[in-house]
Amino acid sequence: MSTNDTASSDMVSLKLSGQDLTELENALARVEAGKGVLVRLADLMGGAVGHAARLGLRGLGMAPSFETKLQGLAESAIARAFDVSVLGMRSVDDSPAELNAWRTPALQAAVAVSGAVGGFAGLAGLAPDIGFTTLTIMREIARIAREEGEDLSDPDARIACLEVFALRAFPNARSEEENELGYFSARALLRGRPVVMLISEVASHYGLALGHKISLQLMPVAGALCGASLNTAFLNHYQALARAHFTIRRLEREHGPVVRDTAIAMRSQPRS
After folding, report:
1. pTM for this predicted structure
2. What sections of the chain are H helices per DSSP?
3. 25-29, 137-141, 220-224 — which is least confidently predicted?
């Protein structure tokens, strides 16, 4: 990077206040932390189960016919969740504080039970587990969007909820082959597509993630334990991505394109 480029990057960063810069950096870190999360899910199990799960991630494949079926399940689950996830959700969260405090633990318990039942039931339990877990994740994404100031009656805000399922983490280090951050590039690729096409595109990313999860759930040594742990990890993963995504969108509403410019400037600066 030239001296002029470095000076330009520093000037861009200064256009955001200290608090906004902190929020942006934390949001980018959350997206970055999502990279490789599926590979690290096996660490949740530990011991022999975790070792088997890691082997399963590296070596367990799926028949093309099953991959096609899984893609269909993912697309149906996302389409259904998109249609019903915001039903009954008000523009402002007026739930009692006590209820909000219990929401995340209750949801984690619910998806864990769904995953355990799905893992125990094998193939027969896939569709109900995928449907329930996807709806729960989408509902949480919408709730987080609302907390960050999104108007869920706006089609753009609802489409932004879908985008969370397709976000890709950007590289930890600057790559000579990449001129843009993967996060912003993924968003740009999804913009302007009809909802039907967007759901199909999102389902391809989500279906790949489900494929890894289900490969572990169907391993005899893992079974219901993997299903419960993986569902909880999935929920936590998409909650974190949604928080990062909608924090960045809120900053963009407040400051415009300078947010993306600042992100590129921060990520292009050498790290110690």
Report:
1. 0.78
2. 3-13, 18-33, 37-40, 47-59, 64-84, 97-121, 126-147, 155-163, 182-190, 195-217, 223-255, 258-268
3. 220-224
